[in-house]
């Protein structure tokens, strides 16, 4: 409520005798009368609402913070602004120097990162991870088992440094009927291993089914290979 409104409200409390002389009122009755008068809604029509009061309080605290920072910074406000500008320029320079932050690597990593193991060992490890609900690890180990099984059958040449996509592309040449599913399996592996996506029981089930089918699949000889064997 404005000062003028308070003055008008207090004016209603002035009690005068019939001869125009003011009458003294004790403190407590005067205070109660003032509270009753000031509680009239017409004196609060222009008061800020709770949200506005909260915003006013917040801006007051922000202003105090900047004033404190300006007082502690050499050069006052000019020094504070110069410091802020310097920090912004430093951030921009680092961003230009390092490039945009990537959530995934520019190229997928290799399929195998640990010591060599057999396909059976990777399958057993994958099953253990799946039983514990560790789908990230289960998906990765099942894909490794799938590729190692193809290597053990000599459908793929051993390639410890290749990526899942490279292995899928090579396997798709020998097993063209499974080429699309092999590419999907490689993408699932890369998404989990390098793309930051969580593995799922569905992805693991698809890899398990593909691995099982490939163990019984027969390779398709290319025309060149057929002529060489003939």
Write a compact overview of the structure shown.
By secondary structure, the protein is mainly alpha-helical.
Structure characterization notes:
The chain is mostly helical. Among the domains are: 50-98; 119-220, no CATH class. Helices cover 63% and strands 0% of the residues. The protein contains ten helices and no strands. Helix 3 (50-72) packs across helix 4 (76-98), helix 6 (135-152) packs across helix 8 (179-193) and helix 6 runs parallel beside helix 9. It is elongated.
Which helices and strands, and how do they pair?
Elements: H1 3-11, H2 27-38, H3 50-72, H4 76-98, H5 119-131, H6 135-152, H7 164-174, H8 179-193, H9 201-214, H10 223-229
Average of per-residue pLDDT values: 74
| Radius of gyration over all CA atoms, rounded | 39 Å
Strand content: under 5%
**Class based on secondary structure composition and strand pairing:** mainly alpha
User: Terminal Cα separation, in Å?
Assistant: 104 Å
State the total count of DSSP E strands: 0
Give the ordered list of helices and strands.
HHHHHHHHHH
Major sheet characteristics = none
Share of residues in helices: 55-70%
Shape: elongated
Low-confidence stretches: 8-18, 100-106, 223-230
Contiguous helical run count: 10
């Amino acid at each position: 409520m404005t000062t003028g409104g308070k003055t008008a409200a207090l004016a209603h409390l002035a009690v005068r005798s019939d001869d125009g002389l003011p009458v003294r009122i004790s403190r407590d009755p005067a205070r109660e009368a003032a509270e009753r008068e000031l509680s009239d809604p017409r004196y609060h029509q222009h008061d800020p609402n709770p949200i506005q009061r909260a915003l006013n309080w917040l801006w007051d605290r922000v202003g105090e913070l900047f004033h404190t920072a300006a007082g502690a910074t050499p050069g006052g406000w000019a020094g504070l602004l110069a410091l802020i500008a310097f920090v912004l320029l430093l951030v921009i320079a680092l961003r230009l120097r390092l490039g945009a932050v990537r959530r995934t690597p520019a190229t997928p990593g290799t399929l195998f990162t640990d010591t060599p193991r057999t396909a059976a060992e990777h399958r057993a490890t994958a099953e253990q991870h799946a039983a514990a609900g560790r789908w990230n690890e289960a998906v990765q180990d099942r894909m490794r088992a799938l590729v190692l099984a193809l290597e053990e059958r000599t459908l793929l040449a051993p390639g410890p440094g290749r990526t899942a996509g490279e292995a899928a592309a090579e396997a798709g040449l020998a097993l063209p009927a499974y080429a699309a599913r092999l590419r999907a399996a490689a993408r699932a592996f890369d998404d989990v291993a390098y793309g930051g996506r969580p593995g799922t029981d569905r992805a693991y089930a698809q890899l398990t089914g593909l691995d099982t089918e490939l163990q019984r699949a027969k390779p398709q000889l290319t025309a060149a290979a057929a002529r060489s064997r003939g």
